[in-house]
Design a protein that fits this description.
By secondary structure, the protein is mainly α. It contains 16 helices and five strands. Helices cover about 55% and strands about 5% of the residues. The strands form two sheets. It has a three-stranded parallel β-sheet. Strands 4-5 form a two-stranded parallel sheet. The structure holds adenosine-5'-triphosphate and magnesium ion.
């Protein structure tokens, strides 16, 4: 069986370091590993509309931004198929049939959806489409016959929901019609859910606590220098705390042994730096400058690549158009198999509705 990846992002803003740590970096590594036959990267505009239905302009404007971010981090359109969700009607049809396989109670139990509802302050006016987005995600994943979904931790309940739908569908309509996917989380635990610069649990476009991949050098520096650390660490000589200290969480996510040699040779490792901070006598400014140098090392080449593509928007547009065309072929093929399994293909097989 072909090894296939499906993953994507909502075009609700530019992509940020959380996306990079939680998913994008891994995608590029998997793409370049040559182990996967098909890689589908989806710009989930239809899903973004479920909680931005009153601001379609925002979603539309960000499609190109996300595409530019993809190309800048090294996703290669010759290997990875980048496409736009709303242009593939087959996904909507699959969602419609899968809706019958999920109960309302089950949707309401989804912990990610629960916290997102709280965050968006929907109260009792939750759009049905928003509550159902885990079902549409199941359609996305299964339409491309993906077996691997590289995402951050917040997506685990979605993949679990997909797996349940697949099992139920296959049980009722025919074994092996749909493929049960597995989630691929980042190796590094802190990358599974990178906190925001304000110390909040998750860096998220909707919370405005992000370092964007396209931020300028100056913006990044300003954001890093304003990062949440330890409110009890007022003077340099005070002992510092690591727990909930965003700068150290980011160092856990991004620092490598060679960074010490290059930017902070007086410390041999992150453990040594942490020990000094906890003991007291190490100021926040010093560690923030170190973190800034490390982040810049990651972002500088991404920024440069972005500039090149920004000069050639026509090419980016063609990449999306071509990718969407290719993706649609696969989705149409799966939908045909699904309808055949459900015996809904009446006009291909007359007996289905004429024979008693
Ligand atoms: P929104 O606020 O609109 O939901 P978002 O910032 O949560 O935006 P998504 O487009 O929902 O971003 O997420 C895309 C992918 O990036 C998912 O795989 C998700 O797990 C991953 N991701 C997003 N934020 C983080 C984060 N802070 N840490 C790790 N992974 C993340
Ligand atoms: Mg999200």
């Amino acid at each position: 069986m072909a090894k296939t990846i499906l993953t994507g992002d909502r075009p609700t803003g530019k992509l940020h370091l959380g996306h990079y740590a939680g998913s994008l970096k891994r995608r590029v590594e998997l793409q370049n590993s040559g182990e996967f036959e098909n890689i589908f990267i989806m710009i989930a505009d239809a899903q973004a509309l479920t909680d931005n239905f009153d601001n379609p302009e925002k979603v539309r404007q960000n499609i190109l931004e996300v595409a530019l971010d993809y190309l800048s981090v090294g996703l290669d359109p010759k290997i990875s198929t980048m496409f736009i969700q709303s242009q593939i009607v087959e996904l909507t049809e699959l969602t419609f049939y899968y809706m019958n396989l999920v109960t309302l109670a089950r949707l309401q139990l989804n912990p990610t959806v629960k916290s997102e509802i709280q965050m968006r302050d929907f109260k009792s006016s939750i759009p049905v489409g928003f509550l159902c987005y885990p079902i549409s995600q199941a359609a996305d994943i299964t339409a491309f016959r993906a077996d691997t979904v590289p995402v951050g931790e917040d997506q685990c309940p979605m993949i679990e929901q997909t797996r349940e739908i697949v099992r139920k569908f296959n049980h009722i309509y025919g074994e092996d019609v749909l493929i049960e996917p597995k989630v691929l989380l980042p190796d590094n635990a802190v990358c599974m859910r990178l906190p925001g610069i304000d110390g909040k649990a998750k860096m998220s476009k909707s919370l405005g606590n992000c370092i964007y991949l396209s931020d300028t050098k100056e913006d990044v520096k300003k954001k890093v220098m304003s990062m949440f650390t330890d409110p009890l660490h007022l003077k340099v000589e005070d002992p510092g705390h690591l727990e909930g200290n965003t700068v150290f969480t980011y160092l856990d996510a991004f620092s490598k042994p060679e960074h010490f040699e290059k930017y902070l040779p007086e410390y041999a490792s992150l453990d040594e730096l942490k020990a000094h901070y906890t003991k007291g006598g190490l100021g926040d400014v010093k560690i923030k400058k170190f973190l800034n140098a490390i982040i810049e090392e990651t972002l500088e080449p991404i920024r440069e690549k972005r500039k090149v593509y920004e000069q050639d928007i026509d090419t980016v547009y063609d990449i999306l158009k071509e990718g969407t065309k290719r993706a649609k072929e696969t989705a149409a093929d799966t939908l045909a198999k699904v309808k055949e399994a459900m015996k809904l293909n009446y006009f291909e097989n007359k007996e289905l509705i004429t024979k008693k």
